[in-house]
């Protein structure tokens, strides 16, 4: 490892510098230019994207009614939609359904809730009547009402038929509700079915996002680097760009993946320019997995992917089959107090474990944490802990490339998580905070003298203790809080999914689009008094502080990673693994925000 690499990796010892990422300072970036998040600030309009944007804007202004926007995975549908929302006039009210439910009644509830209506009836006609009254009132106020349904390819025929009925809400002269369906090409196939011919006839405009051409791909790469850099140099040679296009076939998400990997490869080799050889090396690492998983290379790639997945499973999991242990009865609250001085001392200094036996679970093969640490390998358990976390999140690990050579643990977890479109939140010295966030966490364990070190996964727990996955063991181990703190060195890494790509810290360093997305989420959580605009106003701040107080996290009105995790935990319908079975409110009623919450440390 070069001195430059060691210097950059050491920067991650300071948590405030983590946001600078793997190679930003090295190339002069203010942020990673090829992140796999739908950030409208990086929107690049290829020919088909320009046409789609123009059609969407015109259709809404003209009140045309029904639009279908389709495109392959990774072509930028969600990014385009968010940029489109940012261009809407203030007299337009929007309901944005991110993950549409599979039941017509649930769909109507979600639509009404997003529009801020209190009607939660179980009767479909009553829900429609409530929406119709709302639309008529807004029409009287000369406002436009827009409903956007993302991931529409997942909708069944019954829900699509209900959407058609919504398009019937109209006056003698105009539509009361304009609808945009956004989805993958499967949506087009569904709409072509005979049963949905009436819905198909209602669609006045169809837009399809196409892959970028070679020239557009080069312009796309140049555009993102220009926005992220301080000097605007391209950094990629012509030969490198041709290889990137050959691999990605013009799909923006794949371009991002290979460009990010190419920059990382150049960084590790201490090179300032990404050439064709570097791209070839980067592509070789995942050409038979990432592209195959995205369905771009056909049957042969699929077979190679399956073989790779089988080898990973055999290598990492064949020696042991984890037995889960049921957690205890639900506790009444997870708003745990901060650890006292004695607990903090145990966490940071690793007090002697020789005087107390570990609490273990199961029979026969379950061993104590101390005995496991005696034979644990830090690098191997670190990799196996990541694989276990991804399994709990139901993530495909066949395309995962683990950078075991990285010495900094946080960098390793961040790089691993980014390959799955996830992020990592680091917690130091607060086991109670890990419990509050309620997500599977990777805990760094160490012996009393710090001579032995390993990584375990916190997979469950209640007021009676915690369940740990110890890589290499046949059974999960149950330990009480005191026993766990004897071995936990105070560092925990929590991978999490930023489902709606709310970027930055709000309101300190976030684009207006993120504020709008935050408000859509808050309204979905029941905070109907939040106005849909890109301003972080007082009503939004009050809603955020109420969420923080309810979820037992620091109350400061700032939306960082911790608050995003808490809000996603509250959002119904998201597939999130939990470490406990208690005290996470699925759909809270907003509290009276006039009562100030208990003062806590800022997030």
What features would you highlight for this structure?
603 residues; alpha/beta; Helicase, Ruva Protein, domain 3; Rossmann fold; 4 domains; 6-stranded antiparallel β-sheet; 5-stranded parallel β-sheet; 11 strands; 43% helix; globular; disordered N terminus; disordered C terminus
Question: What would your notes on this structure say?
Answer:
With 603 residues, this protein is α/β, with parallel strands linked by helices. The protein has four domains: 3-37 and 212-285, Helicase, Ruva Protein, domain 3 (Orthogonal Bundle), CATH 1.10.8; 47-209, Rossmann fold (3-Layer(aba) Sandwich), CATH 3.40.50; 288-318; 341-496, Alpha-Beta Complex (Cathepsin B, Chain A). Helix content is 43%, strand content 11%. It is built from 24 helices and eleven strands. The strands form two sheets. A six-stranded antiparallel sheet has the order 6-11-7-8-9-10, with helices on both faces. A five-stranded parallel sheet has the order 2-3-4-1-5, with helices on both faces. Strand 8 (453-462) and strand 9 (465-469) form a beta hairpin. Helix 11 runs parallel beside helix 13 (276-286). The protein is globular. The two termini are 35 Å apart.
